[in-house]
Amino acid sequence: MAARTPAAPLRILHPHLASRRIYRARVREPPAWRLNYKIGTGACGSVFLENVHILGMMEFPEFGMESPELTLWAVKRIPRDLQNFTFKRYKAEIENLQALASHEWFIKFNASYEDTNYMYIAMEYIPMGDMSQSFADGYRWNESDTKVVIKQLLHGLAIMHKEGITHRDLKPENIFLYLPENQTNVLRVKIGDFGTSKRIPPSNASTYLKTTTGTQGYMAPEVHDTSQPKTNRVDIWSLGCVLYRMFAGSLLFNDPVQVWKYALTASPLVLDSLGFSAPCVSFLRGLLQPIPEDRPSAEDCQKTAWIMAEVPEPEYSIGKDLYTKLSKINRQAPNVHSFPDMAANRGVNSSYVP
Q: How confident is the model over 7-49, as pLDDT tens digits?
């Protein structure tokens, strides 16, 4: 059994001790996890919602007690015999999550565990789930709300790329949304599912990404060419495809043939007729440059006119229409106080893979 990574510092939920910080937390061992409430299935396994009991020792020993905390974790279970998913890849996903753990733009890593048949990665649970749920009933984001998400994704990508990490599968299903408590009309974003991510030390400039991986509709032209090296600019292309999907309500490219045709002929993208503002069109065209070297870095994107334009207060505020829609989605999710300890194989049709 591999040693588990210690849980991050947690807050006591006891009303009289809520301000006391836990400096040590003990979690029920993974073999005791029930893993019988499935919330998603992906290419690399299934994700379960687990009711986790944590006992934390107070930082003030005079209390001489431990106080229990109940919380929900999203636990990804990966079969050991899964084709194309090696133990090395499993460890790399954990290492990348840990490297980004101190930043607010990413799903938090809680623990890992391996047994004879499976590998497990336990992460924080985002009740609202991923962005793809917002597209139900043909919903299209307006430009202002779209920018709220793109700005936060750029913060995350800039940090990732500085760490030498390329996500390689940025898409709505891997972008998680949440509404902070006590902040009306504010939307926050986290990037998740680092199963295909790759870390290359920034000092090793001679090393490139070689593997073809990603999701159709969000893959850059160079990804389809197995002979061509890839860089973190594949994430910038994917960001452009996400932006288009949010605003236009459909994919920009439905298959690799359309991507190749665009890349080879440099045929102009039809963007002006969709209602994008001129700064937004300019921003999007930059992200979707066929040649990787012509795409801006995440840091350069943050300096563009569209991103730098003034936004309403508070920061990351969205319109009432979108806030109402997301609030309904949020209310439908299980929470730590109502989730049954014995959920008898209840499944939820979702792509939730943090």
A: 443 333 333 333 333 333 445 556 677 888 888 887 778 899 9
Backbone angles phi, psi at 56, to 5 degrees: -120, 140
Rounded Cα–Cα distance for residues 224 and 239 (Å): 17
Nearest to 209, CA basis, from 287, 292, 285, 284 = 292
Q: Tens digit of pLDDT for each residue in 50-63?
A: 988 776 544 444 55
pLDDT of amino acid 95: 92
Give the pLDDT confidence of 149-164 residue by residue, as tens digits. Answer: 999 999 999 999 999 9
Q: How far is CA 170 from the centre of its chain?
A: 8
The DSSP code for 134 is G
The two structure tokens encoding residue 72: 């929900």
Q: Tell me what pLDDT residue 23 has.
A: 34
Smallest CA-to-CA distance from 221 within 311, 315, 290 is with 290
**Residues designated as active site:** 169
CB atoms within 10 A of CB 20: 16
13, 56, 65, 152 from 62: Cα distances, Å: 19, 14, 8, 43
Task: For the chain, list the domains and their CATH numbers.
Answer: 22-125 (3.30.200.20), 131-308 (1.10.510.10)
CA-to-CA dists, residue 246 to 28, 145, 309, angstroms? 40, 9, 20
* Beta carbons within 8 Å of 117's beta carbon, 6+ residues apart: 79, 80
Distance between CA atoms of residues 236 and 154, nearest Å:
9
Sign of the dihedral through C-alpha 219, 354, 244, 310: negative
Sign (positive or negative) of CA dihedral 294, 297, 300, 302 = positive
CA dihedral 81, 172, 170, 183 (to 10 degrees): -110
pLDDT score recorded for residue 207: 41
Q: Is the pLDDT of residue 307 over 90?
A: yes
